[in-house]
Specification:
The protein contains two helices and nine strands; from the N terminus they run H-E-E-E-E-E-E-E-E-H-E. It is of the alpha+beta class.
Length: 125
């Protein structure tokens, strides 16, 4: 019995790892370049894939989320000029989310791009 379990584990482990790797995607931050325009941050999706952008101002915790089609734009909304760099963002393919919770306490990790994108779980029927 133990040999069978060990053999099954050896056979299934690479398959499970491969399935998990296919589910995880790299972030798509290279698709966006931020500019300050008229008191807000704006970016254009320069990739040929639609992306989901999460943006938060850290001084007040205001969250803005938007799916952006290729060539489409994202606008943060007004930014307090006293805190122009107090922000964080993630960029994932649509229907994916960062593997790090998008919360202020994770700002350092997110700001240095230490996240991947995971599929958003579909509700059970």
């Amino acid at each position: 019995m133990r040999r069978w379990l060990a053999a099954a584990a050896l056979v299934l482990s690479p398959l499970l790892a491969a399935a998990q790797d296919r589910e995880s995607r790299a972030h798509m931050e290279a698709c966006v370049r931020w500019s300050g325009v008229d008191g807000q941050y704006i970016t254009i999706n320069s990739c040929d894939t639609a992306v989901a952008i999460q943006f938060m101002t850290l001084y007040d915790g205001k969250l803005t989320e938007k799916n952006v089609m290729p060539g489409g734009s994202f606008e943060s909304g007004p930014i307090d000029p006293a805190h122009p760099t107090d922000m964080m963002f993630t960029v994932c393919p649509i229907n994916y989310r960062p593997n790090v919770p998008f919360k202020q306490e994770n700002a350092e990790t997110i700001s240095v791009s230490l996240y991947n994108c995971l599929p958003i779980a579909k509700p059970a029927s």
